[in-house]
Design goal:
heterodimer, A: mainly alpha, MetI-like fold, about 75% helix, B: alpha+beta, elongated, transmembrane helix (chain A), transport (chain A), transmembrane (chain A)
Chain lengths: ~270, ~350
């Protein structure tokens, strides 16, 4: 009876469901972007077009402070995470016959599977005891926490890139008198760069918008942009938050587009 | 060992895996390859020829045995410390580097000065006639051009031995023929020892000074193309290289007796008893029925190939044979199917095989 090939797009209601899904995904974001240009200070009532919330947000000393803090944490944490992830990926793809590869793989990707709240509570308790022991109160805790949960995001694209790489190239380098370090430096690393860049960007974005772990780990006065925005919205609904969110959205879109272009290149 | 051996393998053995799953890729192979010769390792896939090549390059460590380069033991030396370069089957060109940087890679890793690298890269590219492609990326080249870059890259550091792992298998027939003569020319000009791995017997016969025939991890025979073709040591070699007729025979006192009681003179030193005898199709001569030949037969089928015809015939004793009938022989065309003919073998061309 079924003479045509099966295709999900021929199921009745396929188009309706697709439209609903896309609406659920993007309508709220569109509302957010539109209301960031609202001239009134409500996030629900449209009072006319205006750019005013952008300079308001920019001139807010607190916004600048938390944005700078967020960017600092995201930069340092994503660089650490990517470095660790690159080494982990090399270790798990370039060593022959290591037993328990699956176990190592699961261990590295643990933050993707454990509920974030569990990690958050665990880190809170862990760091609290260190704080008591050392007295150190700085940003180091947040950076460490972010670096830890960003590792799998950096690890996955780097590992994928390494697995797709032709091992013969490294053998050819060794054949042409390259020491193991030279082979890595001149062949593996340049070919791995798109994966590393992709991992770095994913880790950066992941760190930038983290709320749960940050809320638990941060000390007083260590608000990041997302936790600050959350506090603002709880206190009084401010249209300023819409403008900040829109800018964050723009940054994310730019990074993800770059990620897409980098991973697509040469494949 | 002889002074003029470039590479020597001594009882080299390679086993992959352990216990009941162990696979013997190379089974106690000993071989000496002379300086400056074009040596071919020939055999079907999985015969161990590539394993042996990879051991010489340093990509594999023998389970047992030794590898010597110019008399020096290099068994445990890593690839980067061996003055041996490889042309890979997949070419393995670095995709992120230009042709020039690819070819200069070896010299660069050796820490040679830039001026020397430039000069040698230039020369290597000229050698393979790719001078004008120097600034392209490998992906912008055709398969044949990539092949030449791989060759130039392996030759630029002036290795003592060049290893070629089925380098022509990805090329089409015409290009392959071109590269065969190109390789032969380069080897002749440079005087470098070439070790060439292939499963193509014709390629091996036309290019090599000597051939090593391998099967199932063993080295069966080493010799010049002529020796291998005319005096194969066993049925495998005779069958793998060229076309051969195999006939069961009883050998005694320099005479092999085949089906129907036909007696064929063979070399006096041939092994006695029940053996297979081998005769190449071009050594089977088809004569007129009344020419007084020792054997008679009937033509079963004739296939025209242009320069010659392949004739399947049945001897009166019942044995089947394939013969080549040169198109230009006097008398012109091969006899028609069903014709009764006389048959003789070229004296000395019949081989008694050990197994």
């Amino acid at each position: 009876m079924a003479r045509r090939d099966f295709s999900a797009s021929r199921i009745p209601g396929f188009a309706t469901v697709a439209v609903l899904v896309f609406a659920a995904l993007y309508l709220p974001i569109m509302m957010l972007v539109i209301y960031s240009f609202n001239s009134g200070d409500s996030i629900a009532i449209w009072e006319g077009f205006s750019f005013k919330w952008y300079p308001v947000a920019w001139n807010n000393e607190q916004v600048r402070e938390v944005t700078f803090r967020s960017l600092t944490i995201a930069t340092v944490a994503s660089v650490i995470a990517t470095t660790v992830a690159t080494m982990a990926a090399l270790g798990t793809t370039r060593r022959r016959g290591t037993k328990g590869q699956t176990f190592i793989y699961v261990m590295i990707n643990q933050p993707l599977m454990v509920p974030e709240i569990v990690t958050a509570v665990a880190l809170l308790i862990f760091f609290a005891s260190i704080k008591v022991a050392t007295g150190y109160q700085g940003l180091g805790y947040l950076i460490t926490a972010h670096a830890a949960f960003c590792i799998p995001f950096a690890y996955l694209p780097i590992r994928a890139r390494l697995e797709g790489m032709d091992r013969t190239l490294e053998i050819a380098a060794a054949d042409l008198y390259a020491t193991p370090w030279q082979a890595f430096r001149h062949v593996t690393l340049p070919l791995l760069m798109p994966g590393i860049a992709a991992g770095l960007m994913l880790a950066f974005v992941t760190s930038l918008d983290d709320v749960v772990i940050t809320l638990f780990v941060k000390s007083a006065g260590q608000d990041t942009l997302p936790t600050y925005m959350l506090a603002q919205i709880r206190r009084s609904v401010s249209a300023e938050v819409n403008a900040i969110s829109t800018l964050l959205l723009l940054l994310t879109v730019i990074l993800l587009t770059a990620f897409f272009l980098l991973t697509r290149k040469r494949d | 060992m002889a002074q003029d051996d470039a590479i020597e393998a001594r009882s080299s053995r390679k086993v992959y895996g352990t216990g009941p799953e162990a696979v013997v890729a190379l089974d106690d192979v000993s071989i000496a390859i002379r300086k400056g010769e074009f040596f071919t390792l020939l055999g079907p896939s999985g015969c161990g020829k590539t394993t042996l090549l990879r051991m010489i390059a340093g990509f594999e460590t023998p389970t047992a045995g030794q590898i010597l380069l110019n008399g020096r033991d290099i068994t445990d030396a890593p690839p980067n410390l061996r003055p041996v370069n490889t042309v890979f089957q997949s070419y393995a060109l670095f995709p992120h580097l230009s042709v020039r940087r690819n070819v200069g890679f070896g010299l660069q890793m050796l820490g040679r000065p830039a001026s020397e690298i430039d000069q040698k890269v230039e020369r290597a590219l000229a050698m393979v006639r790719l001078g004008e492609m120097a600034d392209r990326k490998p992906t912008q080249l055709s398969g044949g051009q990539q092949q030449r870059v791989a060759l130039a890259r392996a030759l630029a550091p002036s290795p003592e031995v060049l290893l070629l792992d089925e380098p022509l298998s990805a090329l089409d027939l015409k290009l392959r023929k071109e590269m065969q003569s190109e390789l032969k020319r380069l080897q002749h000009e440079l005087g470098i020892t070439f070790i060439f791995v292939t499963h193509d017997q014709e390629e091996a016969l036309t290019m090599s000074d000597r051939i090593g025939v391998m099967s199932a991890g063993r080295l069966l025979q080493v010799g010049s193309p002529r020796e291998i073709y005319n005096h194969p040591v066993n049925r495998f070699v005779a069958d793998f290289i060229g076309e051969t007729n195999f006939l069961p025979a009883e050998v005694s006192g320099g005479v092999a007796t085949i089906a129907g009681g036909i007696a064929i003179p063979v070399d006096a030193g041939s092994p006695e008893g029940a053996h297979t005898i081998a005769i190449r199709p071009e050594h089977v001569r088809i004569l007129p029925q009344d020419a007084g030949a020792a054997m008679r037969g009937t033509i079963a089928e004739t296939t025209y190939f242009g320069t010659d015809s392949h004739v399947r015939l049945r001897l009166d004793g019942g044995a089947d044979l394939v013969a080549r009938y040169q198109s230009d022989t006097a008398g012109g065309e091969a006899p028609p199917t069903g014709a009764e003919v006389g048959v003789s073998f070229t004296p000395g061309a019949v081989q008694v095989l050990e197994d």
